[in-house]
Write a structure and sequence with these properties.
- The protein has about 270 residues and is of the alpha+beta class.
- The chain contains five helices and eight strands; from the N terminus they run H-H-E-H-H-E-E-E-E-E-H-E-E.
- It has helices at about 1-55, 60-120, 135-145, 160-170, 210-220; strands spanning about 120-125, 170-175, 180, 185, 200, 205-210, 230-245, 250-270.
- Helix 1 runs antiparallel to helix 2 (about 60-120).
- GO terms for molecular function: hydrolase activity, acting on acid anhydrides, in phosphorus-containing anhydrides; nucleic acid binding; zinc ion binding.
């Protein structure tokens, strides 16, 4: 819980700072735009005055055409310049609106976490058990939660990934870790191996169990909804990856089981 509240607080502060920067930029753009409008108006009036003098001194048709063409040109430049400035202002206003919505969401989450923390009686980061047996469900949920614009290896080709790993080592996963609050814990008293067993459902799919050493107390809380409630956030990670074999000094491609890690918080209601 404290880790999560720290992350939310950090994101909130970052969003507020970013919004301040955008607001400052917008103010500067508006100021420059106003100054530009004033400058163009002065230049335009001076230009018209000069052309009018020439026109009055010599009313030849060539000067009339020149007067008309140049007037249109200056007017077009003014309009184009103003349009660019207006477009920039609109983009910044949209960015501010987006930031404000993000800040509001983070503030609400921050307040909710603070409220839960005040009433929390138990908080634990739990690795789900049974990944081998429920790999099919885990993989299905894992893939369904990937972003719509998701690309393998973050949009890099395998050759680019191999090149980077060859230079710096480490591992690069094909899929991004995913997170969801769609988690249900269900007691299973009829379980022949452990009457205190607690099933983990993510997106309505059984993906594993709470470890036995924790299930005794968690089942008591989960099984008493009139007195206790819980919030749970699941992280799923794993799948295909490219890594560096330090022993044989070469690149390899392998696959890890998709696993689930829960951020569980128990709250006393009564």
């Amino acid at each position: 819980m404290r880790k999560r509240i720290g992350i939310v607080k950090e994101n909130l502060e970052r969003a507020e700072k970013e919004n301040e920067i955008v607001v400052t930029q917008l103010t500067e753009i508006k100021s420059r735009l106003d100054n530009r409008k004033t400058s163009w108006k002065v230049c335009f009036l001076f230009f018209l005055f000069c052309l009018l003098v020439i026109f009055l001194l010599n009313g030849h048709v060539v000067f009339k055409i020149l007067f008309f063409v140049l007037t249109l040109t200056v007017f077009w430049v003014m309009t184009f310049s103003e349009g660019q400035g207006t477009s920039l202002v609109e983009r910044n206003q949209e960015k501010i609106k987006e930031n404000m919505e993000n800040i509001k969401t983070l503030q609400e989450e921050f307040q909710q976490i603070q409220e839960r923390e005040r009433n929390s009686i138990y908080h634990e980061i739990i690795k789900g058990k049974g990944a081998t047996y429920y790999q099919k469900n885990l993989s299905a949920v894992f893939l369904s939660l990937q972003d719509e614009d998701w690309e393998p290896y973050g949009g890099y080709t395998k050759s680019e990934v191999r090149k980077e790993i060859r230079e710096i080592g480490g591992e690069e996963y094909k899929y991004m870790p995913v997170y969801t609050n769609d988690v249900k814990l269900v007691c299973e008293p009829t379980n022949s191996h452990d009457p205190n067993a607690v099933q983990i459902f993510v997106c309505d799919k059984l993906v594993g169990y709470i470890p036995k050493r924790l299930a005794i107390k968690i089942s008591a809380w989960v099984g008493s909804p009139d007195f206790f409630s819980y919030t749970c956030r699941a992280e799923l990670d794993g799948g295909e990856y490219i890594g560096w074999d330090y022993g044989n000094n070469k690149i390899f491609t392998s696959e890890k089981l998709v696993k689930v890690v829960l951020d569980l918080n128990i709250v006393r209601i009564k």
